[in-house]
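thread: overnight batch results

M.L. [08:02]
morning all. the overnight job finished for the chain we discussed friday. pasting input first so we're all looking at the same thing
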Amino acid sequence: MKSTTELSERVIQLGEKFEKMPEELKLHLKSSGTNSSAAWFLGTKGENISLFSELIQKGIDAHQEARLSYYPDDPAYITEQLKDSEEYKNTVDFLQKEYQKLLSQLQLSGPFWSMRSIGHMLWDTSLPGMLGYFSAMLYNQNNVAAEASPVTTLLELEVGNDLCEMLGYNTQPINTNKTSKNDVNTNKIVSWGHITCDGSVANTEGLWMARNVKFYALAVALAIQNEEVLAPAKKIRVTLLNGDSEELLSLDNWTLLNLPIDEVLQLPQDMEDDYGIDTKVSGDLINKYSVQSLGLLEYYQKYLRDIYHTPLAFSPDTRHYSWPKAATLLGLGSANNRAVKVDLRCRMDVKDLEKQLQECLEKKQPVLTVIAVIGSTEESAVDPLQEILALREKFRKKGMEFCVHVDAAWGGYFAAMIRKDGTLWRDKNQPEDIDEQLVPDLPMSDYVIEQYKAFKHADSITVDPHKAGYIPYPAGGLCYRNSSMRNVVTFTAPVVFHGGFDPTVGVYGIEGSKPGAAAAATYLSHKVIRTDETGYGKILGECFFSSKKFYANLVCMNLDRSKPYICVPLIDLPVINKGGSVQEGIQQMEYIQERIINVSNEELIQDQEAMKLFRELGQDQTINTYMFNFKNADGSVNTDSAKCQLLNNEIYRRLSFSPGQKDLEETKLVVTSSNFSLDNYSKEFIDSLRLRLGLQGDEETPIPFMISTMMNPWTTATDQGSFLPKYIEILGNTVEEIVLEIWSGKLQ
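M.L. [08:03]
and the structure it wrote out:
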């Protein structure tokens, strides 16, 4: 096996070669007009199939050229004579037949590229994403080690930087010539990001990091106390949360667990700078005393006898299931991923968080991290990150520190909507800078924009290219504000990354093998569709626009009193949310019908008054959550929870796919579904929904709901106009059919 030094030199050589590539291979395509997105996807009818075929063939040809040019005089096995043999021909014939069977099976897959597919967080993958994945897949690079991925390792580093920049973090340009510490500013904290297989793995790694950072200062103190080599550092000082400077070895355990995060991560570098102790030496010795090595049980028994409670992580009721799973895997226990209530908009209730944090402070229970969800996958909610960060500052003054993680697996790419020219964050107070042909007047609300602007202060962020980045699976991602954080999930000292090349990115995560093709797919897609308002911001801005128009259509289904049902979106009308009357709600629906639904996109964008309301409609991102209840024959609204459940479950059954389904056209529209229940949401939240649905009694019955995710940027601007009326027609007809079956007793 190659040594680390040899491998590093090889990677540096490859990086230098990469930097000298022709600029045409480093595409940075700026959007022009409104037609560029048409070249970014295969198309709902495969309109770009000729282009795709041509480019795929180039990828195959380039791969064959690589095989032929590497030691061309080496012998071959597959000769023309061999190809003429009966055995070879029979094998090829068998391959072709089995392949054709597979193709036939695959054609029964859900048509997620279709205009009618609005259920899940996936749509057509981007053309450059597919090209990058397919072309790199041919080389089968494994990004666990640079010798197995000499090209795609470099691409992953580039992608990591690009993701960090999109999210607002400070980065250091990748420079393969940067081999000396004298060449860099070692005092500058820079971020670092990498590709994971998905958001669940990224979330687990984020919690893993927070756990290890929490106990790292204690490990350093123990190592200095017990290891003779580290004895010169016995007088090392640290800055406390209150700004005072104290000797590390003079601190009690609670203080050691609550030192400033960046101060903790700087300790190995300070030991080298001030006492001449190499970070490799100190890192190896510190690891002997780390929770990473010893485990929580032995750590508490040996070194934390005055700390009586298991450390906690806090996440909202809307959290992804990966968080309690991660707590289980790390030995914390799922119960110690403590839930925080959400408000009626499904955003984290900061008052409940503060109450629980105060309880932890009073009984000295360590807090590892607080997780803010930016784009919950069922409720489309954006947690109040600004308030969470402000709350952390409040508790820092009380002597308690913890990480803040942003779970933006779904919502991360929406940051591109407020990035101008790939570098600057757009100012919401300067609408004249917004090209209406790029993004339709930025339909994100002011509240949501403010949370995105706070990303740069979070310690780690999950972001999934295979969701709103339109990259083929698997391609998740994790970004660290301070690159040193990546080291605490390995067994190396947490030294800051300064833009040079590591021999591998594989040591900094959970996975072993992972496809270099995912990095190549994300890299090429980012180069063609930039992570700013000209690229992904443009696509997602159009999706936002369609999503809010869909909400407008949903809520206005209630204007027709003759319909035997009511539609209840998760988020009520703005006027109702502000305490308005039912009559005011009807008036607002009529306004929406006239000024938002029954006008063209261009007319709406030019109507400043309507656009002001438009931006505040519905949920925080591009997922619409909604429920139906039916009316009885006399016009009264059904009050039976079980019958309401029956209705919504049947809507989902008829508007979704199932394994073995032969006729895809039986499903006229694709939605997905989930349930609200007292197991996962507060009584106040459930009571509010039940009241709006008109239900009485039987509070334990879960409330099913539909989920529609807008990922198609062309929904409201097809060659036949907006496709939204078709959605509403299908939904309405489906609900009406089911209601008639319930009335007749056919469905019960």
